[in-house]
Amino acid sequence: ASPEPGDTDAPANPDEPAETPGDDAPADDNHNRVAVIELVNAEPETTRETLEALGVREVVSSFSTGLTADSIRTGNLRRGSELITGTLVRPGEEFSLLRALGPITAANGFGNAPIIQGGQLVPGVGGGLSQLATNMYNVGFFAGFEDIEHRPHSQFIPRYPAGREATIVAGSLDMRWRNNTPYGAVVQSWVAGGQLHSRVWSTPYFTVETSASGRSNVRPATTIQGSGGNCVPSSPGQAGFTITNHRRVLRQGQVIINESNTWSYSPANGVSCPSPEPPQHEAGGDE
Questions:
Q1: Cβ atoms within 10 Å of 241's Cβ, excluding its own
Q2: Dihedrals phi, psi of 179, to nearest 5 degrees
Q3: What separation in angstroms does the CA of 163 have from each of 150, 261, 265, 280?
Q4: CA–CA separation, 58 and 259 (whole Å)
Q5: Which residues are CB-neighbours of 49 under 8 A, at least 6 positions away?
Q6: Residue-wise pLDDT tens digits, 233-258
Q7: What single DSSP character describes residue 55?
């Protein structure tokens, strides 16, 4: 099974320092703070005037998810947020999370944190980045952007909305949406107050209506027998189930997108590891 850059169900860390962009930004005439977002991976000629001409004026969608207590995982989310913040997506262009992140390697600033592989948590470089994928999927979802590529996790993680979340796998699974508006869109993400926050700046264009079905085909988690020297015991977790999320994207009352996405989660089974074998001694041998 492909690894999913990791998610655990540890509690959020209440001691995360606040680093909300724009805290030191100048106030406008209405005494509102104005966040200044530095562009990355943009052409040299991209200026404030260019952004204003593209309609990058206000927050059109935002989404936040809780952190875990794993400091390395949180560090991966900080680094990922740094790399994608300021990415400009022009009208008709796609946002690719993997492209915005660049190589998910130690050399690019990522550490080892849990990832889901074969239904179990194992260490992996960039563990936790699927939380950024979930945030970025949702800001695109609520902005009304066209969903190009996303896949939820194999197992349900309670801090994410059921069926409306995403994971990534370097080289094989991306999170992508297309800016299907006549305005530019700029991505922003940061860690603060025990949460990962993400936004899209643009001009409001669509009205988005969403709903979700109930959970069906519920399958309780059980305990399976593990094997091998690397077996790590764990307790049963979340049940498996199937859910459908619906979205209608409208422009001045006209339906532009009408879609339903159904996903089935596998139960998060616990693992029981075999007891170690007692040492064997040859008959009559010295110890």
A1: 20
A2: -75, 100
A3: 11, 8, 8, 51
A4: 27
A5: none
A6: 889 999 999 999 999 999 999 999 99
A7: T
Which residue is listed with tokens 């005439």?
29
Question: Which pair of tokens denotes residue 253?
Answer: 């009352």
Residue corresponding to tokens 């009208």:
91
List, for residues 120-153, the tens digit of each pLDDT value: 677 889 999 999 999 999 999 999 999 999 999 9
**Span 31-86, pLDDT tens digits:** 444 455 555 554 555 788 999 999 999 999 999 999 999 999 999 999 999 999 99
Proportion of the chain in helix, strand, coil states, percent, rounded to 5 = 15, 35, 50
CB 187 within 8 A of CB 84: yes
Residues 63, 67, 69, CA angle at the centre, nearest 5°?
175
- Separation between Cα atoms, residue 190 and residue 19, nearest integer Å: 7
Q: Roughly how many angstroms between the first and final C-alpha of the chain, as a whole number? A: 44
Integer Cα distance of 36 and 86 in angstroms: 10
d(CA 63, CA 132): 10
Q: Please state the length of the chain.
A: 287
**DSSP 8-state code for residue 111:** -
* Beta strand pairing call for 94-96 and 88-89: unpaired
User: Smallest Cα–Cα separation from 187: which of 174, 168, 202, 172?
Assistant: 202
> What confidence tens digit (pLDDT) does each residue in 174-203 have?
999 999 999 999 999 999 999 999 999 999
Q: Is 34 helix (H, G, I), strand (E, B) or coil?
A: coil
Which token pair is 286? 């010295």
Q: Count of CB atoms within 10 A of residue 174's CB?
A: 21
In this structure, the dihedral spanned by the alpha carbons of residues 116, 169, 263 and 224, taken in order and rounded to 10 degrees, is -20
Classify residue 277 as exposed, middle or buried by CB count within 10 Å of its CB (0-12, 13-18, 19+).
Answer: exposed
